[in-house]
């Protein structure tokens, strides 16, 4: 099992961080921790387990994020995650969507720290891999520090050692999930204070992180940073992570190298009966800001042409056409991020 530290990670994002997205991000960084989309306990109890849990070993270190609030169900789901080989089981206590609230989990669990502690204990008793919690700093109008401090303290007593702190409140009524990622103000100092008060815990910070300078600043106060939408929309941000934050001596992959690796992966995917667009949709930010990038994206987001690609040769031809729009000699280097 991997022992890579969680210095930098990519947030679990519904409809985005599926196995194809994670494979793409892994071409950019070998050490960044990756997370699945949230998988509910119900999906694992009653659905196609392999469809939800299968991944490629190349994705490691990769964590499984679970959504649920029944300790026995979460323990069962955690055991499945460990059996599948995930390096970490993460409990979602931060999602504010009404659909998640109807299932009595996500951010609304912050109002029930004793229940979360029971869930964490059940999972820790069931598996040997780390069990972690991702949460907000408050819910609705509850903004005082004591609320999140007591939440973390209660869960820590159940044996959780790693907390991923999305440094915004979750507004459970009146805001969409998108608005919940933008409207409640970021209060990073709350996460810093948690680290000061619980120095023995691993505290990661999430929310609004868009560049290396912010990462450096946060890492002076907490143990790790989690990047969300920025890693998806501007994925080349991940290219320097290994060198900057893990001391890796391996060369930074160029955009072309990343693209060619994914091109081969997509060729295998379509020849196994998969849809090309299921992968390329995650790659559209690779050449953002590059001359010709718009034309490249236009080719690789054409649903009709993606559906028509049934062989690796057809995949190669589409990528060659897309690359014809690029002027690589003008490609900026990653420090321009």
From TrEMBL:
EC supergroup of this enzyme: oxidoreductase
Active site (record annotation): 95
Domain DUS-like FMN-binding stretches: 10-314
Record-stated family: Belongs to the dus family.
Needed co-factor(s): FMN
Residue ranges that the Swiss-Prot or TrEMBL entry lists as coiled coil: none
E.C. number: 1.3.1.91
Keyword Transmembrane helix: no
Top-level division of the source organism's lineage: Bacteria
Catalytic activity field: 5,6-dihydrouridine(20a) in tRNA + NAD(+) = uridine(20a) in tRNA + NADH + H(+); 5,6-dihydrouridine(20) in tRNA + NADP(+) = uridine(20) in tRNA + NADPH + H(+); 5,6-dihydrouridine(20) in tRNA + NAD(+) = uridine(20) in tRNA + NADH + H(+); 5,6-dihydrouridine(20a) in tRNA + NADP(+) = uridine(20a) in tRNA + NADPH + H(+)
Tagged with keyword Signal: no
Function in brief: Catalyzes the synthesis of 5,6-dihydrouridine (D), a modified base found in the D-loop of most tRNAs, via the reduction of the C5-C6 double bond in target uridines. Specifically modifies U20 and U20a in tRNAs.
Name of the molecule in the record: tRNA-dihydrouridine(20/20a) synthase
Alphabetically ordered keywords of this record: Flavoprotein, FMN, NADP, Oxidoreductase, RNA-binding, tRNA processing, tRNA-binding
SUPFAM superfamilies from the UniProt entry: FMN-linked oxidoreductases
Record: residues binding FMN: 12-14, 65, 134, 166, 206-208, 228-229
Site (Interacts with tRNA): 92, 178, 181, 294, 297
